[in-house]
Amino acid sequence: MTGLVLKLRPAERILINGVVVENGDRRARLNVLTSNANVLRLRDAIHPEQVNTPVKRVCYIAQMILAGEADPVKGRDQLLSGIEQLSQVFTDFDSRERLDAATQSVLSNRIYPALKAMRGLLAREQRLMERAS
Residue 67 CB: number of other CB atoms within 10 A? Predict the structure, then answer.
């Protein structure tokens, strides 16, 4: 069986194609069989008041596309622009791989993998911000 497998905690919420779904009282396992379904765990979501760094801004744009709250074409352009700007700061090999993966995902209209790749830069960005202050 192919597709996305979600393992949910009790009362955990997820967003699937713009619809919020809440799990019941027990752990659950869902198989999302539809390819290109937009899925986001709400526990992983960055909230608007937390969008205070360049990487978080790019992640937030991806989340808004997944939630159906942003125009996919404009959002895609914003994602590519944001990734390009980040590539001027994150020049190490691992970061470059993540940025390249995010770019390829956006170009293939696969927003969740792009978000996942970008989230991998959050800790690195935090360390850079701490060193700068």
Answer: 17
Buried-exposed string 31-64: b where 16+ CB fall within 10 A, e elsewhere: eeeeeeebbbeeeebbeeeebebbbbbbbbbbbb
CA-based end-to-end distance of the chain: 49
Q: How far apart are CA 22 and CA 53, in angstroms?
A: 30
pLDDT in tens, 53-79: 999 999 999 999 988 889 989 999 999
Q: How far apart are alpha carbons 30 and 25 in whole angstroms?
A: 15
CA diameter of the chain: 49
Q: Distance (Å, rounded) from C-alpha 25 to C-alpha 63?
A: 27
